[in-house]
Amino acid sequence: MILGVQLSFRTKLLEIVKEAETLGCNTIQFFSHNPRQWRSSFNLEEEEIKKFKFQLRIAKIEPLFIHLPYLINIASPDEKLYQRSIKAFIEAIKEADKLGANFLITHMGSHRKAGERFGLNRIVSALDTILDKTYDSSIVILLENTSGSGSWLGYSFSHHGFILRKVKNKRRLGLCLDTCHAYVAGYDISKEEGLKILFKEIKEEVGIDRLRLVHLNDAKDRCGSLRDRHADIAKGYIGIEGMQAIINHPYLKRIPFILETPKKTDRDDIRNLNMVKSLRYESE
Ligand SMILES: [Zn+2]
Question: What is the Å distance from ligand 1's center to 7 Cα?
Answer without folding.
Answer: 12
